[in-house]
Amino acid sequence: MSVSSAAQYWLDGCALSDPSLSLHPESPSLRSGEGWFETVRVHAGRALRVEAHLHRLINSALMWGDDRARLEGLLERAMTPVWSAIAAQECACLRLTLLPAVERHQWPQVLVALSPYEEPSRLYRQAARVITSKIRHPGLGILGKSLSYHWSTFARREAAAVGADEVLLGDEHGLLEASTASLLWSENGRWCSTSGQQGCLPSVTIEGLRQSGLTIEPRGSVTSQKLQAEGLLLVSALRLVVAVSTLDGAVLPDRVHCATLLRERLLEDVAFTQNSANDV
C-alpha cells in the first residue's frame, strides 16, 4: 500500500498532525521486528469485520505474555477517536499496529492509520497472474500478523520480477498460502481452504465467508495440478476475493464471476441463502 497524503494517523488515541513517529533505540520493533498489525477494509463508512481483526491482534500479542484486559482497554482507547473518521470514508484502508514497549512491564503503543483505498479494478476484471515461490512457507501463522514480514516481502519481489501479481508459498506437501492472501478453491463442488492449517494465518475474511453461510472445508495443502483443474481464488481483508487467471504460466479455469459474487456478499455483509451459496 502506497503512502497517501490524505492518510490520517493516531497514536494511542491522539491524532498526529505530523506523521513522523519516534521510537526508542532499544524498541523491540527496531531490534527484532517484534510487533503485530491488522489491515481492515473500510466500505461505506464501516470497518468490515473489525471485531474479528481486533480479536486476532489481541491473541497475537497474548503469545508474548501480555494481559487480555489491558490490551482490550488499550485498543478501545486507541480506536475511540477513529470511528467518526471511518464513518466518513467510502473506501479506505484501516491499519492497526501494536508496538511493544522497551520494557515488558510497560504498555505497548497502538498506531492507527486510515487512508483512502483504490480497488484493484484490473485484478477484479482480469484476475491475477500468480507464480509459486522459490522459498519455503515459514509456517508462522500461529504468531498472527507479525511485523517480521521479510518472507512475504521477498516473495512479492519474486512476483514483481517476472510481472506476476502474487506468489504462492508451500512446503513438501503442496501449496499453503499466498504472500498476502489465503487460498480458496473447490474440490468436486466443495469449497476448501488452508486458512489456519499447517502454520497458515487463520483468515478473518475466510471466516466471514463461513459465517455468511458458505461451507468451507479445511485442507492442509493443495497441489498445482488440483488448482489447474479447479481454479483458485485469493482471499484477503483489502482485496476481499480475487480470481487467479494463470499459475506459473498455466491457464486456470475462469473464476472471475465467482469472485465477484463473493466480494459483493462480503461488502454487503449479507448471509448466503442455500440457493446463493450453491450458485458460487
In short:
The protein is α+β, with helices and mostly antiparallel strands. The protein has helices at 28-32, 50-62, 68-79, 83-87, 121-126, 150-161, 204-211, 224-230, 256-268, 274-279; strands at 8-11, 14-15, 36-43, 46-47, 91-99, 109-116, 128-136, 166-171, 174-178, 182-187, 190-193, 216-218, 233-236, 240-247, 250-251.
Describe the structure.
This protein is an alpha+beta fold and 280 residues long. The chain folds into two domains: 109 residues, Aminotransferase class 4, branched-chain amino acid transferase, N-terminal domain (D-amino Acid Aminotransferase, Chain A, domain 1); 159 residues, D-amino Acid Aminotransferase, subunit A, domain 2 (D-amino Acid Aminotransferase, Chain A, domain 2, Alpha-Beta Barrel), CATH 3.20.10.10. Helices cover 31% and strands 29% of the residues. The strands form two sheets. Strands 7, 8, 9, 10, 11, 12, 13, 14 and 15 form a nine-stranded mixed β-sheet that branches. A six-stranded antiparallel β-sheet has the order 2-1-6-5-3-4. Helix 2 crosses helix 3.
Walk me through the topology.
Layout: E1 8-11, E2 14-15, H1 28-32, E3 36-43, E4 46-47, H2 50-62, H3 68-79, H4 83-87, E5 91-99, E6 109-116, H5 121-126, E7 128-136, H6 150-161, E8 166-171, E9 174-178, E10 182-187, E11 190-193, H7 204-211, E12 216-218, H8 224-230, E13 233-236, E14 240-247, E15 250-251, H9 256-268, H10 274-279
Parallel strand pairs: 7-8, 7-14, 11-12
Antiparallel strand pairs: 1-2, 1-6, 3-4, 3-5, 5-6, 8-9, 10-11, 10-13, 13-14, 14-15
Helix pairs in contact: 2-3
